[in-house]
Amino acid sequence: MSEENLYTFENEAYRKTYWHTCSHVMAQAVKRLYPQVKLAIGPSIDNGWYYDFDCDFSFTQEHLEAIEAEMKKICKERLHLERSEKPRAEAIAYMESLDEPYKVELINDLPEDAVISFYTQGEFTDLCAGPHLDSTGRIKANAFKLTQCCGAYWRGDSNRKMLQRIYGVAFPKKEELDEYLRKQEEARKRDHNKIGRELEYFTTVDVIGQGLPIMLPKGARVIQLLQRWIEDEEQKRGYLLTKTPLMAKSDLYKISGHWDHYLDGMFVLGDPKDESKECFALRPMTCPFQYQVFLNRARSYRDLPMRLGETSTLFRNEDSGEMHGLIRVRQFTISEGHLILRPEQLEDEFRGCLELAKYVLDTVGMLENCTFRFSQWDPNNKEKYIGTPEQWDEAQSIMGKILDDLGVEYTIGIDEAAFYGPKLDIQYKNVFGKEDTIVTIQVDQLLAEQFDMEYTDVDGKKRRPYIIHRTSLGCYERTLAYLIERFAGALPLWMMPTQVRILPITDRAHDYAKQIEAKLTAAGVRTESDLRSEKLGYKIREAQMQKIPYMLVVGDRDMENGTVSVRTRGGVDLGAMSVDAFMGRCLTEIATKDRSF
């Protein structure tokens, strides 16, 4: 990066330092206005910052406006930020003197050899590792905004106290802030949580629980269409379909390592401490179940590669603060697969997994907005993983070579690997800029040994296979959310729950409308007729609001000529055409999965 860009938002490190300093300015403003408030944490994030507070009142919009005004004063005061360090006992005593119990807890949890640092600006001091800008005057007083306030459990633990989290964002220029706020307003209009509910794709019910959405008929239909397409596509590529249980005894998860490394994310049925009764858990992933297909009988090199695919329903005990519409849920369905293979087959099979994922994401219109992350282990966090450092070095070296050979441009994510191996994560951002993994391809050299999986090689010797864990479209619920946002609810024709709505002008055309509906339906076009006694303009507007791709207006002339008058949801009048001509147009768009419409 050039010298002149080091201190601009082009530089991610500077951008996050800027936002981190903003979080301290916000905390200082809160303490000035409401001294009784206790401070928790305030990091920079991908699109700004947040700070968590413990207070005996709820922040309102009026509070946020007052905090913003005080922040502007602090920026104009140009307070110098000074770093200092304290020994552990002194640091604890200092935070206790300020009556900041959350900071005391954080200090107590630091490693014995940790450097305990503080940053001071004016009368305000905060426990912080930094880094920060040198002065509050660096922050443009007219180019930041506090965007929202919500609840957040202390340290993400639902058993701990609920705090209040204030989010903010800032830029070097007011024009950049204005553009960001404009895009956020557009994002709110596209938010799947809003559109998906308005269009009746899904709903949630308090008595069922958070993160457990109900797919309404429209949403269920889209997911069904995607699932059938993926299963057919995988079959073409040599995948064998499996169907495995939704739960298993704890014994299975102990073999795989999930019991030791993923238990907090699992729903356990029964008491793990009661050895007199069997303890079960809902599955958080399918791999240990699909391995049983391989283990069903003795295998040789001729059986490999074995490509196993399954439309899997999974359960993960996500924190309530992480729940968001269909993007982060506790029960979801995934296009999961495991490839069991010889080591020399790894690169070709990995390439096939990547090609499939890219083809699928490109077809649904998401690939152009994807990025790639090579997720690796953290050698300083060994207890999180199984295997030796040598095994991890070997696996990551092999995977890095494959990615480089395939020309994949990627970033590296340390401590983002699965507990059994490195992975390629295909990342996608929702309309608000929050990034999640949509597809993953993982290289695994370890679990075959855990399950005593082996095959007889060409030379007659027994060997351990390699395993690739992969998805082709990932989580169907999350994909539906992204598609709703990507197309603002107007999904491509081939995946729309209703593709055509017929609008008869008069009661005389009702029978003709039903005849056309039957013909299109028989050909595989999802069609319905609107026979209500409403004005045509009202019916057209309602169909457009529901994002119906095609509206067929039929009247006396159409009945005489055997035609339909075609309108699109975008308001384009395509004029009259024969029913067969229109049907051919639809079938071509559906077959080619055309999304240019």
Folded structure, characterized:
The chain is an alpha+beta fold and 597 residues long. The strands form 7 sheets. Strands 11-15-16-23-20-19-17-18 form an 8-stranded mixed beta sheet. Strands 1, 2, 3, 7 and 8 form a 5-stranded antiparallel beta sheet that branches. It has a 5-stranded mixed beta sheet with strand order 25-24-26-27-28, sandwiched between helices. A hairpin with a 2-residue loop joins strand 2 and strand 3.
For this entry, give a set of tags:
597 residues; alpha+beta; Threonyl-tRNA Synthetase, Chain A, domain 2; BirA Bifunctional Protein, domain 2; Rossmann fold; 8-stranded mixed sheet; 36% helix
Q: How many H/I helical runs?
A: 18
Return the average pLDDT rounded to an integer: 94
- And the CATH topology of the largest domain? BirA Bifunctional Protein, domain 2
CATH superfamily of the largest domain: Bira Bifunctional Protein, Domain 2
Binned, the helix content reads 25-40%
Architecture of the largest domain, CATH level 2?
Answer: 2-Layer Sandwich
Number of domains: 3
The strand line-up of the biggest sheet is: 11-15-16-23-20-19-17-18
What amount of the residues lies in strands?
15-25%
Q: Report the count of strand segments.
A: 28
